DNA sequence: GACGGAATCC
DNA sequence: GGATTCCGTC
């Protein structure tokens, strides 16, 4: 059982970060930890112990030394290393086992979802050291509800040794170019068996993968488009529940997936198990058994759900061409239409999901079957009432392009009154306790998804996105399309943002595909004409929009000119107050001019400020000038 | 020992 | 971005 070297657990090449490439010093600490953990040579230094995924650093100094050697940081010590480990807390990669010294616990679920988002599901290799399937055959059993239900403490079972190939590869890639002669990697290399050394990466990994099933079969969406979301972990603990499972295959190897550790390392009833933020909560009260076919479906759904709701936005930065459905929600009762079938629009997935530098063929090989879907509406957002409805109703547009942290700034600028949306760093928003859902969906079946431990990263980051805000504002002003204004209307001079929004393929038209909502084109090719929304409304250039507003306000101001004299008298008494307002407005204008709002955030800010109250007419004038200037700067729509 | 902020490096 | 380094706090 515990023969990691023989397990053959294979990750596809794309699963390996370039940091893991041979000679790279950029190996991440958690990689390294796993690397050590799989080596029996280092079991006196660090070893799996305790609950599943839990390990103890038996010799902190030595681990630090090894790490330092690996990173060519001779000054490394446990204090520094532990600091690095603590940074993993927020990332949910790791957490501390309270009360146990030097004991940490991997959150493989998060670890893999973030770092191995496109784990190959077509490989025929299965981790033999994965948690066992008690019943064998094609059936899987979910972990016990509570740790107390399992008493077995087999070290072997605890140890997620299916990382063997990963670690093997990491070991291969961990050859340090340090010349101090203390390279940990040399030790690790030596620790590897001859068979491992003899097998090149191509054979050891890539060779294991094909033949693969096409993605459209692997990631085929269920007949019920909403089925994915309907099988949430807590409300409907059904086979599609998006929590990890032990994907051991049946004799026929129906699944035969090369699963992410998150999936494969799920504890079984034999394993002691302590709920962890992301592993346990969906499992609570779940005790299932189902066949491999169900498992396959689940895995498909799970994988897709990862992309819909759970994946770290960072992972998406590598997949710039994803098209995000832009739900138009005149009738919130149509959430099912959000779930698109990948095979229906294969062109949508023509973009590459591969992220391996220099390995573009991988991405071409595996076009994305995923599209982001509007996350469900959370309780808090639902309860927030209609005041937020306008914002929520267009949140779907925001999700399409808001994998940036910059939206937080915008959100704060937009927030008037008590914030209804809690904006947190990405690293913090995955907290199960902190999940706040903002979506346009009213369908309860969807809502529990966002209560997953994985959190709804996209949801929260997306809904604050300036694109969304601007679109929302434009709609509110009646200037925009009845549908979401394409983000083309947004000035986006920030090249950084360009990297963080999904790019739209040349053939993005899903509008004719029977979708109940139009797609939002997150980014168009340079020079591309403003798209026509499915409703037929052409994008109104921001410049023109500002111009209109400018004209209106000019007219209004001219009308109010007659009152100016009287106003001055009043102002003479209230100069201080008005000045304060002017200062405030000026400050906000300054934010715009200073680029305080990216991606058209200025328009958003301005939009919320308009029309100004009569007492701020002068400030409005300044604002208008700033607006005009801004509009001139924003040439594109 | 553990935690996390802050500055800094790469 | 992912550490590394330093440090104050508990």
Mean pLDDT: 45
Give Rg in angstroms. Answer: 27 Å
Span between termini: 61 Å
Give the full name of the CATH homologous superfamily of the domain at 22-115: Winged helix-like DNA-binding domain superfamily/Winged helix DNA-binding domain
Written overview of the protein:
This protein is mainly alpha-helical and 637 residues long. It has a domain at 22-115: Winged helix-like DNA-binding domain superfamily/Winged helix DNA-binding domain (Arc Repressor Mutant, subunit A), CATH 1.10.10. Helices cover 39% and strands 3% of the residues. It contains 28 helices and eight strands. The strands form three sheets. A four-stranded antiparallel β-sheet has the order 1-2-4-3. A two-stranded antiparallel ribbon has the order 5-6. Helix 26 (564-593) packs parallel to helix 28 (617-633). Mean pLDDT is 45; it is low at 1-24, 118-177, 180-540 and 560-617.
Report a brief summary of the structure:
With 637 residues, the chain is mainly alpha-helical. It is built from 28 helices and 8 strands.
Q: Main traits of this protein?
A:
637 residues; mainly alpha; four-stranded antiparallel beta sheet; disordered N terminus; DNA-binding
Summarize the helices and strands and which ones pair or pack:
Layout: H1 4-7, H2 29-38, E1 46-48, E2 54-57, H3 60-70, H4 78-91, E3 94-96, E4 103-106, H5 108-115, E5 140-141, H6 155-158, H7 164-173, H8 184-191, H9 194-198, H10 201-204, H11 215-218, H12 227-230, H13 261-264, E6 289-290, H14 292-310, H15 313-316, E7 324-325, H16 360-365, H17 379-383, H18 389-393, H19 395-399, H20 407-414, H21 444-450, H22 457-462, H23 466-476, H24 495-500, E8 519-520, H25 542-559, H26 564-593, H27 601-609, H28 617-633
Antiparallel strand pairs: 1-2, 2-4, 3-4, 5-6, 7-8
Helix pairs in contact: 2-7, 3-4, 23-27, 25-28, 26-27, 26-28
The structure holds a DNA duplex (10 and 10 nucleotides).
């Amino acid at each position: 059982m515990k023969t990691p070297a023989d397990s053959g657990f294979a990750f596809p090449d794309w699963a390996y970060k370039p940091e893991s490439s041979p000679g790279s010093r950029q190996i991440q600490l958690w990689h390294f930890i796993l690397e050590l953990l799989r080596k029996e040579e280092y079991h006196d230094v660090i070893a799996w112990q305790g609950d599943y995924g839990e390990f103890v650093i038996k010799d902190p100094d030595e681990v630090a030394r090894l790490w330092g050697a690996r990173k060519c940081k001779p000054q490394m010590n446990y204090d520094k290393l532990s600091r690095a480990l603590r940074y993993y807390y927020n990332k949910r990669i790791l957490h501390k086992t309270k009360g146990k010294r030097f004991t940490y616990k991997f959150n493989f679920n998060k670890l893999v979802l973030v770092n191995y988002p496109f784990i190959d599901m077509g490989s025929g290799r299965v981790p033999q050291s994965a948690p066992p399937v008690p019943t064998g055959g094609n059936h899987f059993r979910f972990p016990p509800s509570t740790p107390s239900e399992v008493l077995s403490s087999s070290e072997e079972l605890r140890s997620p040794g299916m990382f063997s190939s990963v670690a093997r590869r990491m070991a291969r890639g961990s050859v340090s170019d340090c010349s101090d002669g203390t390279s940990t990697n040399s030790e690790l290399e030596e620790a590897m068996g001859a068979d491992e050394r003899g097998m090149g990466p191509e054979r050891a990994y890539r060779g294991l993968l094909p033949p693969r099933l096409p993605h459209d079969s692997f990631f085929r969406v269920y007949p019920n488009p909403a089925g994915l979301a309907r099988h949430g972990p807590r409300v409907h603990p059904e086979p599609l529940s998006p929590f990890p499972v032990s994907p051991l295959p049946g004799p026929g190897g129906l699944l035969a997936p090369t699963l992410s550790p998150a999936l494969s390392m799920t504890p079984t009833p034999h394993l002691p198990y302590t709920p962890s933020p992301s592993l346990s909560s969906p499992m609570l009260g779940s005790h299932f058994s189902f066949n491999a076919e169900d498992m396959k479906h689940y895995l498909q759904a799970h994988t897709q759900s990862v992309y819909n709701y759970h994946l770290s936005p960072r992972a998406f930065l590598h997949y710039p061409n994803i098209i995000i459905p832009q739900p138009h929600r005149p009738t919130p009762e149509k959430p099912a239409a959000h779930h698109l079938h990948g095979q229906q629009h294969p062109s949508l997935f023509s973009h590459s999901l591969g992220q391996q530098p220099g390995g573009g063929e991988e991405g071409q090989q595996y076009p994305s079957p995923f599209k982001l879907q509007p996350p469900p509406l959370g309780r808090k957002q639902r309860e927030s009432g209609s005041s937020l409805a306008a914002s929520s109703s267009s949140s779907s547009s925001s999700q399409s392009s808001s994998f940036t942290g910059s939206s937080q700034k915008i959100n704060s600028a937009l927030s008037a009154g008590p914030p209804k949306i809690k904006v947190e760093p990405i690293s913090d928003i995955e907290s199960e306790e902190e999940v706040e859902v903002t979506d346009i969906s009213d369908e309860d079946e969807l809502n529990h998804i966002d209560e997953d431990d994985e959190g709804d990263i996209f949801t929260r980051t997306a809904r604050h996105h300036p694109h969304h805000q601007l679109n929302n504002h434009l709609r509110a002003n009646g200037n925009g399309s009845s549908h979401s204004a394409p983000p083309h209307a947004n000035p986006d001079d920030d090249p950084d943002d360009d990297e963080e929004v999904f790019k739209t393929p040349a053939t993005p038209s899903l509008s004719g595909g029977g979708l109940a909502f139009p797609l939002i084109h997150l980014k168009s090719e340079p020079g591309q004409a403003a798209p026509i929304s499915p409703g037929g409304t052409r994008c109104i250039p921001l410049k023109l929009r500002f111009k209109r507003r400018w004209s209106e306000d000019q007219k209004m101001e001219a009308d109010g000119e007659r009152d100016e004299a009287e106003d001055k008298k009043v102002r003479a008494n209230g100069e201080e107050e008005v000045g304060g307002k002017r200062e405030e407005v000026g400050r906000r204008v300054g934010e715009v001019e200073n680029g305080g709002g990216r991606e058209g955030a200025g328009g958003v800010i301005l939009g919320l400020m308009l029309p100004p109250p009569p007492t701020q007419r002068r400030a409005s004038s300044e604002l208008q000038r700033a607006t005009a200037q801004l509009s001139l700067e924003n040439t594109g729509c």
